[in-house]
Design a protein that fits this description.
12 helices; 8 strands; about 45% helix; about 15% strand
Length: about 270
Amino acid sequence: MTRQELIQQIKQKRSFLCVGLDTDPKKMPQCVFDLHDPVFEFNKAIIDATAPYCVAYKPNLAFYEAYGLRGMESFVKTIEYLKAEHPHHLIIADAKRGDIGNTSQMYARTFFEEYDVDALTVAPYMGEDSVTPFLQYEGKWVVLLALTSNKGSHDFQLFEDKDGQRLFEKVLTKSQEWGNDENMMYVVGATQGRMFEDIRRVAPTHFLLVPGVGAQGGSLQEVCKYGMNKDCGLLVNSSRSIIYASSDDHFAEVAGNKARELQQEMSVELERLW
């Protein structure tokens, strides 16, 4: 999915919602456990219910790798289902890969050739040669960790050098030598509030993947106020508050309603933009 295609989907759906598929069997409703592949069937039901209201899905690899081959089979089936039945949604594999060059090449091959996802989250800590192998795939996106929503983000990401530049700003500045706003996004946590202003000073045109709205307490309105650009420039992710909104037999319907509520809020924000 190209940048222009993504923007077109946002305009068409009046939404910049990304639904996180952090699928945990311990939190799934009992009704799906009678099915052959409960994780996939849960995902399928969530996807079908939320697809009209979102433009992207973000399966978190940790929730599939934790169950070995069985979990990865559920992941692969989820990707295949999305590509077959909902092909106009961006698929982001949240795997946070990044290693020395030849290892990153293999990670890139795994996700962009074998699984054929549209985007992959990547950790920038090891520098250029750990990131650029992911940028060699035309039409694919690297989603680079910049300023995350977790409490520990302050341990390193706000560290200032002698010139007063913070580490996350260094990541934003340096990485723009490797990629551009057609193939690179940044992860910025919704709980960072007005820090989005600092992000936009350094990366005014890039899309930002924004986790933390919903269960983590981030404010959609605050994210939009400080982080939205002329192309929207945001993909706001919500996981737990949508997919685990109900634990009964009507879980998918409730998830769809939660996604629609967020889409309606996003539509209001987009009205101010377009």
